[in-house]
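Students often ask why we bother predicting the structure of a whole assembly rather than each chain alone. The short answer is interfaces. A chain on its own may look different once its partners are present, and contacts between molecules only exist in the joint model. In this exercise we take two input lines together and write out one structure for the complete complex. Read the inputs first and try to guess which parts will touch.
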Amino acid sequence: MLSNLLRSEGHMGTTLRNVQPLAATSPIDIRFEDSRIASITESPTTPPPGDDVIDGGGKIVASGFFNTHTHLAMVLFRGLADDVPLQVWLEDHIWPIENKLRAEDVYWCTLLGLAEGIRGGTIGFADMYFHCDEIARAADEAGVRLLLSPGMAAPSMDEGGAAKLDATTHIVERWHGKANGRIRGALSPHALYTCGEDLWRATIERATHIDVPIHTHVSETRSEVEAWREQTGASPVAHLEQLGAFDVPFLAAHCVHVNEDDIAILADRGVHVAHCPKSNAKLGSGIAPLRAMLEAGVKVALGTDGAASNNRLDMIEEMRTAWILQRALHEDPMRPSADEILAMAATSARALFGLEEEALAVGSRADLILIDRGTLHATPAHDPLSTIVFAANALDVTDVLVNGNWVMRNRELRTIDVERVRFEVEGLLRRHGN
Amino acid sequence: MLSNLLRSEGHMGTTLRNVQPLAATSPIDIRFEDSRIASITESPTTPPPGDDVIDGGGKIVASGFFNTHTHLAMVLFRGLADDVPLQVWLEDHIWPIENKLRAEDVYWCTLLGLAEGIRGGTIGFADMYFHCDEIARAADEAGVRLLLSPGMAAPSMDEGGAAKLDATTHIVERWHGKANGRIRGALSPHALYTCGEDLWRATIERATHIDVPIHTHVSETRSEVEAWREQTGASPVAHLEQLGAFDVPFLAAHCVHVNEDDIAILADRGVHVAHCPKSNAKLGSGIAPLRAMLEAGVKVALGTDGAASNNRLDMIEEMRTAWILQRALHEDPMRPSADEILAMAATSARALFGLEEEALAVGSRADLILIDRGTLHATPAHDPLSTIVFAANALDVTDVLVNGNWVMRNRELRTIDVERVRFEVEGLLRRHGN
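Now the answer. The structure tokens for the assembled complex follow.
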């Protein structure tokens, strides 16, 4: 009881002992106070009296993952008609259900997506969907980081655009910075080809004014890019540049069909690209020029997209897919390296989530994951980096700490009632006749 | 005690109740007696008195996987220098240890590989390595199916080829058909370019004489195929055809760089291809023309290759890699379908393991796996086939039955002492200074 009293007054911290970092050979102890890392020292240390002490058991410690483009609530459609053409899939399977989704449905489905993500070590989600107050509420309760991205589409400002921009601005302003800074907002026109130019211009102006990023789909399919070029003479990336879209922090999902000129713009303007290799593969969109983007210095991060086109929200599997596709395509066993792949999953998009400081450093937010290296499929564990990138499963993640709070301990989720979530999602499916 | 007596006299069977097949909407009960399936009936049934009754709990039931090209003992090298060129990897990392491996070392490493495979639902392994008596002993004890493939290489019959062919023939004859038919043998010249033509001719003759297949590497890298064409004017596949190699059952690993003519030969001659997409990606070998092979009717199965170039022995991940690469490459969301992918993993290579009858049919060998469909990452589970191919983890496999014996129950291996295997493999690494 005394211990609890002291804790609530903030006098104490937590010492996480005996964890294996990626870069060093010796295990370390990490101490954090409230939401920040207070010290990182070679093991063993003597924790200050009164600290909570947690034995890491030699597990790998790493920065948690950021899923930089997803539609969490679409877990509802996981495995629903995988092998059909896009139009059939949308018209016969997705839209009939999606059109009937209530705010509360999105809340439960988002929680299910968050649960899967946390289970696999994801601590931040750039989530583009609708009923966004429910999404923010779910992320707040789940204890994770969120880039809330209320999707909008309209042919022009007059035809619904102005109202939608105002509505999404209100949502973003309501949540930006909330939950101890874990929730951030972005304006999210769906794509260049689904939002009129005046809406795009107004969105850029608004994003500048309220100081939030823009998050949108860019050059996902070959046909989309070809149609846009035919119509306007410019590539989508060049067009966005001309509009001034890259004057604000910008998160461009997909960028599958970008050419050398596009890549130069993306690099030069510091655009964040959310590379979604598995969704691009499953939907037959193609293979993004990842190596060229990395070589040009583009800030590439990874995203799963929605579970309907993946079918997982698994950042380890997304890392695996990224290196498999590039090494096979370029017939090069050396690139991308494990380092490059892990950076895309864990660190390259931190700024979009309001984290300007280095990951896993003294003074930084206490965000980390622990990974079991004693599984059969990771034995022998010659090298922790190799274990994560080339051998681990999502289920090998054992503990997840976000902003100083454990959202998973010993493979048990602590912020989400998984059985309740299942119950609600199953009820929702029954209502829709599935 | 009475029950045990009756069992040993073979009067009873086992009824596995309430499992979900891929093709039907209703759960089924499967009854087996000794090593064969006695009945398959819609649930619920009344098991005969005296049967062992096991509740499948609504799990997915499917045919177990066949890993048709691997080097199990190379789990020892998992994660050892992943991002270096092939020659550096071989000369600085692999060969120095491999040259010192003793027969007993290969036994323990093979068991570690088998344990990982079983854990992920693999019931049969085409394993090409050395110290093959130890490999056969490990597979016998582990209770799995094995296509024992003692690797051999020699420039000619006079320069070691004759002796090696005799030695491997003896090993193959010693084990072929043993362990209640679970172990089969194959003659395994390493490749066209590492074995002299007279050795190849003698091997084909020997395989015909002792009635076993040939298992070898074919057209794995671009440079290998180009060099062969330059030297002989023929592709490796065309050359093998001219030698008469396809007159015996033939398992060709890789076939990455095969052209239309090669594919026509492979289809026409009923050659089994072990497609190893992840290894081919990691080593930068390229992407095999899987779609063209499937369309031509080639009998394509899946293999992981060794863990050193994968880094897993995970057939679910191998399925995932196969569809990801092909859908991305061809920009086609419909092919390969989930059905085609699962057939490559589970059924297309059964004949090589001596299983001529259909999988999961009355009268067939009782080989099956159960898969948990209640995991977070498979929820909601709209469709069992989709769950396996697009969403499942290796760790979702809960039970593995081979030839009527449970080698894994409720995620616990029953034939391999995993802690002992770890202990031995770690001791082996310490001896080699790793």
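Check your guess against this: The radius of gyration of chain B is 22 Å.
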